[in-house]
Automatic annotation (TrEMBL):
The chain crosses the membrane at residues 24-45, 57-81, 102-130, 136-158, 170-188, 226-244. The keyword Magnesium does not apply. Residues 25-251 form the ABC transmembrane type-2 domain. The gene is lieB. InterPro entries: ABC2_TM, ABC2_TM_bact-type, ABC_2_transport, Nod_factor_ABC_transporter. It is found in: Cell membrane; Membrane. Pfam families: ABC2_membrane. It comes from Rugosimonospora acidiphila. It is a multi-pass membrane protein. Keywords: Antibiotic resistance, Cell membrane, Membrane, Transmembrane, Transmembrane helix, Transport. Its main location: membrane. Belongs to the ABC-2 integral membrane protein family. This is Transport permease protein.
Length: 253
């Protein structure tokens, strides 16, 4: 049964990845907005923000990476909505394939497509002066956190992809997620914010994730932020996964 599921998921993932590779503008579009924000903040606002001994591009890159992921997962909802509207799911149900493989194919496609977008953003950041003395293990830890964050947001994206009535409704949910890093430690230290704003910024998930990635890049101890970041990612992932599967069962029943 497990072999059947994995085999079906691999085949279906290949199908959705072909859609992505035939339309590379989706990956480029996903990367363009974060790159534009990075250029704007580094070359326009960066000189006015004190980040100590860390260059501003290095300081803000973790937040830009999270914005890249938030931009990319909207396409998961878009692709899922189009498959439902096109009757693909009904055709798959008439075939001897694992039903859950259909959802996992979209999720794995999101992971792969977002990984490509993240590499593009990091490449531009290197051209802008980003440098890190982090070792292989630190880079692997960063990649793991970003993958976990992508997985959590992707399962959130599955829910509107299955339940939205219009294509705009399927992808619009990503906008609040894209703006969430702006009210965090991603671009400025939270200590400079007014009291209520600082309280929100200090206790929302993006801040802990950004802090951990930044500490890994700069070879500083990550402290307790790593556990807070993992708790947020796993918690969001579990809740979103459960709601997504409930929505899926209702949709195909």
């Amino acid at each position: 049964m497990a072999t059947h599921f994995f085999g079906d998921t691999v085949v279906l993932t290949g199908r959705t990845m072909r859609h992505v590779t035939r339309s590379l503008d989706t990956i480029i579009t996903t990367a363009i907005t974060p790159i534009a924000i990075m250029l704007l903040f580094v070359y326009v606002f960066g000189g006015a923000i004190d980040t100590g001994s860390v260059s501003y591009v290095s300081y803000m890159l973790p937040g830009i990476l999270l914005i890249t992921i938030a931009s990319g997962i909207s396409y998961t909802a878009f692709r899922l909505f189009n498959d439902l509207r096109g009757g693909i799911f009904e055709r798959f149900q008439s075939m001897p394939i694992a039903r859950s493989g259909v959802l996992w194919a979209h999720v794995l496609t999101s992971l792969l497509a977002n990984a490509i977008s993240l590499l593009l953003v990091v490449g531009v950041a290197l051209l802008m002066g980003f440098r890190s003395g982090a070792g292989v293990l630190a880079w692997l830890a960063v990649a793991g956190i970003l993958a976990l964050f992508t997985l959590a947001l992707t399962w959130i994206a599955v829910i509107p992809g299955l339940t939205a009535k219009t294509i705009d409704g399927a992808s619009a949910f990503a906008y609040p997620l894209i703006f969430l890093p702006f009210i965090s430690s991603a671009f400025v230290p939270t200590g400079t914010m007014p009291g209520p704003v600082r309280a929100f910024a200090d206790h929302q998930p993006v801040t802990s994730i950004v802090n951990v990635i930044r500490d890994l890049f700069t070879q500083r101890p990550v402290g307790t932020d790593i556990w807070t970041a993992l708790a947020w990612c796993v918690g969001i992932l579990v809740v979103a996964y459960l709601f997504a599967n409930v929505s899926y069962r209702r949709r195909i029943s």
